[in-house]
Design a protein that fits this description.
By secondary structure, the protein is α+β, with helices and mostly antiparallel strands. It contains twelve helices and eight strands. It folds into two domains: 225 residues, Rhopdopsin 7-helix transmembrane proteins, CATH 1.20.1070; 147 residues, Alpha-Beta Plaits (2-Layer Sandwich).
Length: 395
């Protein structure tokens, strides 16, 4: 029965390692560092499988040999290393170099204890008839392995809020499976199963990291879509809404706030073309950026700010009285006294269409009225504002 179980479990372990190797080898999207860590784990699992089965062969001899002691020492050493690699794969982005070195100390101690079997019996020894005798430190390998695996569980619980429940469940359940198997091996002498459990857990971990990778790709895609959407709605130079986005947003505000006072402000820079022609487009772009920054500090967060191109800027003020509107426009005039580093000086002429609450007008009509008001401000000498009140006209 033990022979059949041995064959079944070893076959399943080898098939699992081959399956994982194929998936790792064909996975072109996984981070190289993480992939190499999995290769290390698989290599160690294969070595432990070889050492363990070779040790079983030597255990059938009527007397102990140096080969059996060596194979047992190697098996004792490798299992905690496997647990450490699982911990490392799970926490490598959060473990500092100093902590990583500290976490290696138990591995070194375990290796010393395991290989001390050549000289002492503190870990294990063999009777003259080749029976295994566990020493006072014979469970050091299991204890250190459990220590690393418990750290993995603590990490999974600590990050449960950040990771989806399924991902944390995969970590905790696979580590718990390994610990339970180790207890069964130690208490009721269940044999052979440990290697298969570790291989199975590694496959689960691979699935976990594939899930993580997929989630990161999805998040990156969402960030890219958000960035592209923002770029399609904003002016690249100033960060203000572009013409189409401003019109859409303004139309939404107008349709949802028909009983609230509105004001659409349209201004451009006096002498901007002269500055552009004299000092170049770099100086002109500098002034446009300064104008946008002044707009952001002058107007409220809920006001819509847009640039239609060139030196033409629009603002939609929501819920403002006629008296406050004049003060706000005067402040805008003062803020738009701008000078480039090269010496180009500009001012602003402002046209405004005021829409009292209860009256109706669409965006295009407000833009037309504001444009007429701006033309009037230019005719009067520039560097000033003109307000025109929207009459009671249907939409």
């Amino acid at each position: 029965m033990d022979l059949q179980l041995w064959i079944m479990i070893n076959t399943a372990s080898v098939i699992g390692l081959i399956y994982l190797f194929v998936f790792l080898y064909t996975n072109t999207s996984m981070e190289k560092k993480l992939k190499y860590n999995f290769y290390w784990i698989m290599g160690l699992e294969l070595l432990e499988l070889i050492f363990y089965n070779c040790e079983l062969v030597t255990a059938g001899l009527p007397y102990p040999t140096m080969h059996r002691i060596l194979l047992s020492a190697l098996g004792y050493t490798i299992r905690p290393v496997l647990a450490f690699m699982i911990l490392w794969c799970t926490m490598q982005r959060e473990i500092s170099r100093k902590r990583g070195i500290l976490l290696l100390i138990p591995l070194c101690l375990n290796a010393l204890i395991a290989f001390s079997a050549f000289f002492t019996d503190i870990a294990y020894s063999y009777s003259p008839d080749n029976r295994f005798i566990r020493g006072p430190l014979g469970y050091s390998s299991q204890i250190i392995t459990v220590f690393y695996l418990l750290l993995v569980i603590v990490f999974a619980i600590r990050n449960a809020k950040e990771n989806p429940v399924m991902e944390s469940a995969i970590i905790i359940s696979t580590v718990t499976l390994i610990i339970i198997n180790m207890v069964l091996e130690a208490v009721i002498k269940v044999r052979f199963t440990g290697r298969a459990v570790i291989v199975l857990s590694t496959i689960f971990y691979y699935m976990y990291y594939q899930t993580q990778e997929y989630k990161e790709h999805m998040q990156e895609g969402q960030r890219l879509r958000t960035t592209l959407e923002k770029q399609s709605q904003t002016d690249g130079l100033t960060g203000l809404l572009n013409k189409e986005a401003f019109k859409r947003a303004a139309e939404n505000v107008l349709s949802s706030s028909e009983d609230v006072n509105m004001a659409l402000v349209f201004f451009d820079m006096d002498n901007f073309k002269q500055v552009n022609d004299t000092y170049g487009h770099v100086a002109g772009d500098e002034l446009l950026k300064k104008a946008a920054d002044r707009m952001k500090s002058t107007f409220r967060q809920e006001d819509l700010l847009g640039r239609f191109g060139g030196d033409e800027f629009y603002v939609l003020l929501h819920g403002i009285t006629y008296q406050n509107l004049g003060r706000r426009l005067q402040l805008l005039i003062e803020d738009m006294h701008l000078k480039s580093e090269e010496g180009g000086l500009v001012t602003a002429s402002v046209g405004c269409a005021f829409l009292a609450g209860g009256r109706q007008a669409d965006v295009e009509e407000l833009i037309r009225i504001a444009d007429e008001a701006l033309y009037e401000a230019k005719e009067k000498g520039r560097n000033q504002y003109v307000i025109r009140e929207v009459k009671n006209r249907g939409r």
